[in-house]
UniProtKB/TrEMBL annotation:
<feature type="domain" description="Spore coat protein U/FanG">
    <location>
        <begin position="17"/>
        <end position="153"/>
    </location>
</feature>
<dbReference type="Pfam" id="PF05229">
    <property type="entry name" value="SCPU"/>
</dbReference>
<keyword id="KW-0732">Signal</keyword>
<feature type="signal peptide">
    <location>
        <begin position="1"/>
        <end position="20"/>
    </location>
</feature>
<dbReference type="InterPro" id="IPR053167">
    <property type="entry name" value="Spore_coat_component"/>
</dbReference>
<protein>
    <submittedName>
        <fullName>Spore coat U domain-containing protein</fullName>
    </submittedName>
</protein>
<feature type="domain" description="Spore coat protein U/FanG">
    <location>
        <begin position="179"/>
        <end position="318"/>
    </location>
</feature>
<dbReference type="InterPro" id="IPR007893">
    <property type="entry name" value="Spore_coat_U/FanG"/>
</dbReference>
């Protein structure tokens, strides 16, 4: 009879048992992609990885308890993403796809709390699943263009019930730890904020009566450390490339031009007709990122042309910045 009772007890025990085992694995890198310097400075950029280095499989018959833990400790020799000139882009890691659970560097974060592991279904799948991590950059990073990177060290340690017996009694625990690394990259692209007011010559009865438009400025706030040139296109109605610009009204034209600073050198779009960042009247040199560089110019209607018929004459000129 004792043997019969022992066989029946084992038959009832085995169907309720379950094993869920975890391990540290290689991570999937985080790539923010290519983002303009202005966007990096003015808005928080988000990215993520579906594999933060902890992989689990198996099946638990109940949710994690207060005795179960999944710790992640993130450390690095750097304080953020570091670029080619030493500039740093700060960012924060999060345990889920929100800003509710930030992960502080050097401090254990328990993924078993707040239902994070439970919500992932990490221990309820027969197919291995990995823990995702989420990242957001901090605002205000005024940085040069280039590739920014950091390698994080993530120490995972866990202690949880991996086997359930009769009456949901824990019959085994998975206790282990390991370290993996996570690479994070972001590419900063050159960009500018451009302020360029329209040019208005006003009205006049003859071409010789149009006064020059002086004191005009183009303001550029370009990526920190960027060397660039600024060009003004020939407009929509120029006689030829590099020729006189013309405003149009119906089939009639009024020739004019735009000149560098207060002089008579035409501001164009090709070669030496462009203006370099070092040629700015205010803050000459490479881009400042958060500060403006100012380029002065003047515009005039050519007086050696016949006065065209009355009308409203218009043209559109493209301003381009080349890095």
């Amino acid at each position: 009879m004792m043997g019969t009772r022992l066989v029946l007890w084992l038959a009832m025990m085995l169907p309720g048992a379950a094993q869920a085992l975890c391990s540290v694995v290689g991570t999937t890198p985080v790539a923010f992609g290519s983002i303009s310097s202005i966007a990096v400075r003015t808005s928080s950029q988000a990215s993520s990885t579906l594999n933060g280095g902890l992989s689990c499989t198996g099946s638990l018959l109940s949710l994690l308890t207060s005795n179960d833990h999944f710790y992640a400790t993130v450390t690095s020799s750097k304080t953020g993403l570091v670029g080619p000139t030493g500039d740093v882009i700060g960012y924060t890691l999060y345990a889920n796809n929100s800003t509710s659970y930030p992960i502080t560097r050097g401090v254990q974060f328990d993924f078993a709390r707040n239902g994070i592991i439970d919500a992932l279904g990490l221990l309820g799948s027969v197919v291995p699943k990995t823990v995702p991590l989420y990242l957001r950059t901090t605002l205000g990073s005024n940085v040069a263009a280039g590739v920014y990177s950091e390698t994080l060290s993530i120490f995972w340690s866990w202690d949880y019930c991996s086997g359930i017996g009769i009456g949901s009694i824990c019959v085994g625990r998975d206790i282990s730890s390991g370290t993996t690394t996570l690479t994070v990259t972001l590419t900063v692209a050159n960009d500018c904020t451009i302020t360029a007011p329209n040019i208005a010559f006003g009205s006049a009865p003859v071409v010789s009566a149009f006064a020059p438009v002086t004191g005009q400025t183009v303001n550029l706030a370009c990526t920190k450390g960027s060397a660039y040139t600024v060009g003004l296109g020939d407009g929509q109605n120029a006689v030829s490339v590099g020729g006189r610009r013309r405003m149009v009204s119906g089939g009639n034209y009024l020739a004019y031009d735009i000149f560098k600073s207060a002089g008579t050198t035409r501001w164009g779009s090709v070669g030496s007709a462009r203006r370099a960042s070092t040629d700015a009247e205010v803050n000459p040199g490479n881009g400042l990122g958060t500060g403006s560089q100012v380029f002065n110019y003047n515009a005039r209607v050519y007086t050696d042309q016949a006065t065209p018929p009355a009308g409203t004459y218009l043209d559109s000129v493209v301003l381009d910045v080349g890095f």
